[in-house]
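This entry is retained here.
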Amino acid sequence: MSSRSTNITTCSRSSSARLRHGDRVVAQTPIDAKLHVDFEESERLFDYSTSVDFTASTSTSNLPSSTVSAYLRKMQRGSLIQPFGCLIAIDEQNFTVLAYSENAPEMLDLAPHTVPNIEQKEALTFGTDVRSLFRSSGATALQKAVNFTDVNLLNPILVHCKNSGKPFYAILHRIDVGLVVDLEPVNPADVPVTAAGALKSYKLAAKAISRLQSLSNGNISLLCDVLVREVSDLVGYDRVMVYKFHEDEHGEVVAECRSSELEPYLGLHYPATDIPQASRFLFMKNKVRMICDCLAPPVKVTQDKKLAQPLSLGGSTLRSPHGCHSKYMSNMGSIASLVMSVTINEDGDEKESDQQMGRRKLWGLVVCHHTSPRFVPFPLRYACEFLIQVFGVQISKEVELSAQQREKHILRTQTVLCDMLLRDSPVGIVTQSPNVMDLVKCDGAALYHRNKIWLLGVTPTESQIKDIADWLIEYHGETTGLSTDSLMEAGYPGASVLGDAVCGMAAVKITSKDFLFWFRSHTAKEIKWGGAKHDPIDKDDGRGMHPRSSFKAFLEVVKSRSIPWEDVEMDAIHSLQLILRGSLQDEVVDDSKMIVNIPSVDTSIERVDELLIVTGEMVRLIETASVPILAVDASGKINGWNTKVAELTGLVVPEAIGVLLVDLVADDSVEAVRNMLFSALQGKEEKNVEIKLKRFGPQGTLDLVILVANACSSRDARGNIVGVCFVGQDITGQKLITDKYTRVQGDYVGIVRSPCALIPPIFMMDEHGRCLEWNDTMQQLSGLKREETLDRVVLGEVFTTKNFGCRVKDQDTLTKLRILLNGVIAGQDGDKLLFGFFDRQGKYVEALLSANKRVNSEGKITGVLCFLHVASPELQYAMHVQRISEQAAANSLTKLAYIRREIKNPLNGMKCVQNLMRSSDLNIEQSKLLKTISLCQEQLAKIVDDNDIESIEECYLEMNSAEFNLGEVLEVVINQVTILSQERQVQVTCDSPAEAAFMYLYGDNSRLQQVLSDFLANALRFTPAFEGSSVLFRLTPRKERIGTNVQIAHLEFRITHPAPGIPEELIQEMFNHSQSVSREGLGLYISQKLVKIMNGTVQYLREAGRSSFIILVEFPVAH
């Protein structure tokens, strides 16, 4: 960090932190670019630690901007991806291909395997419709995704290759030219997950999240240690680390979980160049970054020549690592990595405006390394991202809590120091305990006052202190102090003599010649390394890029440098400076950067130190106040301009001081300001006056700041009025909303009262039930004039059951209207009511009435706005037909309810007989038959009880979860289709491994029986009867262990039958419900939805001579 002159009174802490971070990013990026160029030009001879030291110690100002631009372009637009997936970029308007990776044709089974024909060659090229590459369900999902604002919420989308049916996860993100689709192959043995089933991914992280949230506050180290263990259990990498970024951008490993044979990295510090600023920017865009194999050759992305520049791959999950990073990984023996970014709220954001809420910064990374190639499926990466988000929230709270505790400690120390000053000013703060060294973290401190020096801790000698003071007066005399983490970089000539003992310094001027100093030693003194100590006599292994080489590079970079001074520390130092300046006997220096000039003190009260201390503290409070405060002298010129008003107007303090206030206000506020000034200078202080200040600089589209201000007369020690102080409240946002509301209200009234035929009938009611509006269309519809309705009671005088006003049919109609209107007044959401009344000519008018809340600018409900939707003759006829249809549907439901009720009687009889049989002595075969009957009876009972079909269609039906035997389920399914098989003269062959009979799972066995029997029955219905005709029902199970105690059984049921297969229209009905659906289509549709509720998928695959249902589901293993 370069030195900086400190005038801390002119900007808020959070703003200055962001500015400093921005400066560091700008300064660091050319250094990153230079290292990258050095590596590419001399890869074999590249010495990382030496290059970092040389680059950091020399200027990069001579580095051409084109070199930096080329570096940044290569980082984001390198046109290379990792080979574990493929990439396609498309135009969102017409879905045509703009670019694709060279491995895409082969991976998507589009490459010809024999002599290619024209059609095969054109399967994937620029201009190809991407929807033609995938089957209908995937193509439809991609088409729908384009209409979403944030396509990331839909990831992953499951698609299947059109030719082979191979499944892929499509992971989408937007870029400047269109949509990038990353395609990652899905392991056929895994159950695919889509965005709708993303909750499953979160469940994988549930245990880890619960563990993190159970930890007590106040221990970031423990939080990090627990996280690395949980992430290690979740993803199984050889090494998991938490990598924290420090204030000066360098990094440190603060927690580690590793295999015993690996070298520890805990405690290692790394220079800022280890993770370039461009990479950090990409981590903010793409929160989870996976490298499967750093040694695998990358794949090139080919793009249409009409694109102006290479594709931006910053958000791609497949982006290839650049060569420097790959070399680093291979040198440390790491082949695969998974990196997750930890982001927290920026300092002070919780106190800033809504526009700045949500501003995030990169706190650190969770880094996973593996010594062999490793691929983590997208759902598990999704779970990791969710876990790290929770961790980021926890860290954000801990950082905030730590900052609050540090500020409280400083405040307590500050209070004690102030008390010391009252008793022994100023030497008490260095001769008593606690002292100035307790105020901030430092290695030494010194007070230089009236040519005397008091030393504490590790400091320069007295002669060196005097030399530093003279240097400050000569080179920094215009400032109130200086803070730096490197006196050498700050330009102090004697820095080399001080050595590592004194590197950093914070100095504040307390009189024109007196100073208070704090000193810090070399950064390396602060470093604690959990592994072997980095001793100068240890020999490096000669590898140019390695964590230990990075540590050596870090020590070189921080040579002659201390840890940086934090904002909260400088705030405390500056506060003490203000108090000291008031308490010491010295000429008051005119400093235009201070908010108020402290008037010279009358000799009669020269010794009243306490009054001056209070004055100094008041100055500090005004400068750091969260409300705008400004002051003018008797001539109306600005002599006080605090941080808040500078922030609001964009006019910094030095530029504001000395300017006439009337020159800074809007024209329509000049007269009000002059009157306020005149009155305040006469002693009359006006309150709550609106002032409009001009904005300066790039402050957005608004050009004025609107304040409500109080005037306070400023008096000198003799009581004479010498100026005016304005204390304001920013009401700009509120005023804009009020003005906009007024304009909208005016437009609104104009539209409502317009005689245009397109405006529907409208009437309004206030909160007391009286009519406020009766528009022109409503007059024409009812025959009632506006003046006849205004200020009359809507229910009883406007709409009545009598022979005046608008007569309704009966009291029941009036009651329904009253319920609707009163509900809206009470705050309920508006609803619709089929409403009718007789007009003045006795004609009955029927309409649909919509009622909506009317609210004022404060959000209070002030009445009801009602629209009447009057149907045309054609629509009235359609409504009549609809009512007949609804009545017919209601009759059908009544009959269905009767049938359900009647079925339950024999079901209960069957259940009773089963209970009697269980109490009898049965042999093994009889017990098995009884079990089969029981399972069929339970399935039938569940189907009969399915009243809420909508819950199945919308996939929120609650499934039972009980232990069941998979072998028994298979036997039940075969028995249910046996009679149909005999009738169709088609044999059913069940092919399942022997282990299925002994596999016990948790789940809803009745629903599994229902869907399998339905798919199997449909396969039988559409299988032609011929000699040897058969349907194959095959089960392929696979077990997967998650963690230490959980096993998941992945089941693939494949029902294969001869061509021609199930008609295409039925397959369409299985996935797309319509009103004219057939009986078989409805059954397939319900079964498909039930599989989806079980987090499974259904496919129908047509092949040469045969077709297959493929049902993929998964259940936890019971034991």
In short: The chain has a mean pLDDT of 78. The chain is about 40% helix and 20% strand.
